[in-house]
Write a structure and sequence with these properties.
hpI Integrase, Chain A, 331 residues, two-stranded antiparallel ribbon, 48% helix, mainly alpha, DNA polymerase, domain 1
Length: 331
């Protein structure tokens, strides 16, 4: 029976998984991803009760992971996330161990080269953006940020004097510094002045708290209302926190920025598949083209291994691998 036609035996078990994830202080994004994988796994097995799930183990996990690789053609990172979710399910929700070998088919790695814009194409796209979307995309390109890193920036992470940004809890849960373009400073300062007015209005109305990780909120109890902890790019409206129930102003959604980018790319008549991440790729490639060494770029991007950064060397020179086509040598 196709997975999509099976029914979930109820939401109470998923609620238990959510509760355990919160007890273990997982981020809201990890919680949602794990619960979604658990739901898919239960549907894949056709399990109708917790007892049925408790009777499963390594072989069922192996079958599901192989299904993802062979039938769903997922990426290796996606398969790894599913595995982590199932380990969480058995170890922390079902209180069972997965001690046996899991010899699932591995998802085939995809060696896709990054899409990179030329400097002229970057100019054309930026010229068609405005407001907050323009600011964020300029940060993606000017500082090499991921879209999630940009929208999660807090006021205290912007250092105008040093012309640098501090990226907190980037990929791999690592902090790093990266450059802040001098040309962007006046625009960003004006933007923050408007954000501060909005924050003061929230405070006057009895709101003004921003989300902080639980440990930080306990350590700095006044911080959630402090200006320096507010998001640089707050959402237009306040919303209810799904965990605490508090009304807060969260950061803007990355999807809004990507939507604006896609529209600008269409208007600029650029025939490339461009997303927010394309500007990070372009940041690294253009730095290489202008002579910045690979180790410096590695640090700015926050790559753990320089081999990850080396992929950007593919555009140095002209044509593929800097090789001149023999067609150009013909008379």
């Amino acid at each position: 029976m196709p997975v999509e036609q099976r029914t979930m035996p109820g939401e109470r078990f998923l609620d238990e998984a959510r509760r355990v994830a919160r007890q273990r202080r997982y981020s809201i994004h990890t919680e949602r991803a794990y619960v979604d994988w658990i739901r898919k796994y239960v549907l894949f097995l056709g399990a109708q009760s917790r007892d049925e799930l408790a009777g499963t183990g390594e072989r069922e996990v192996e079958a599901f992971l192989s299904h993802l690789a062979l039938a769903k053609k997922v990426a290796p990172a996606t398969q790894n996330q599913a595995m982590n979710a199932l380990v969480f399910l058995y170890r922390h929700v079902l209180k069972l161990s997965l001690d046996g070998e899991i010899d699932a088919e591995r998802a085939a790695p995809k060696k896709n080269l990054p899409v990179v814009l030329t400097e002229d194409e970057v100019r054309r796209v930026l010229a068609l953006l405005e407001g907050t979307n323009e600011l964020i995309v300029k940060l993606l390109y000017g500082s090499g940020l991921r879209i999630t890193e940009a929208v999660r920036l807090r006021v205290k992470d912007v250092d105008f004097q040093m012309k640098q940004l501090t990226v907190r809890n980037g990929k791999g849960n690592r902090d790093r510094w990266t450059t802040l373009a001098a040309d962007l400073c006046p625009l960003l300062k004006n933007h923050l002045q408007r954000v501060k007015v909005l924050h003061e209005q929230d405070l006057a109305e009895g709101f003004g708290e921003v989300y902080l990780p639980e440990a930080l909120a306990r350590k700095y109890q006044a911080a959630p209302k402090d200006w320096i902890w507010q998001y640089v790019f707050p959402a237009r409206n306040r919303s209810e926190d799904p965990r605490s129930g508090k009304s807060r102003r969260h950061h803007i959604e990355p999807a809004r920025v990507n939507k604006a980018i896609k529209q600008a790319v269409r208007q600029a008549n650029i025939d490339k598949r461009v997303s927010a991440h394309t500007f990070r790729h372009s940041f690294a490639t253009h730095l290489l083209q202008h002579g910045t060494d690979i180790r410096t770029i590695q640090k700015l991007l926050g790559h753990k291994d320089v081999s990850t950064t080396m992929i950007y060397t593919h555009v140095i020179g002209q044509g593929g691998q800097g090789v001149r086509s023999p067609l150009d040598a013909l008379d």
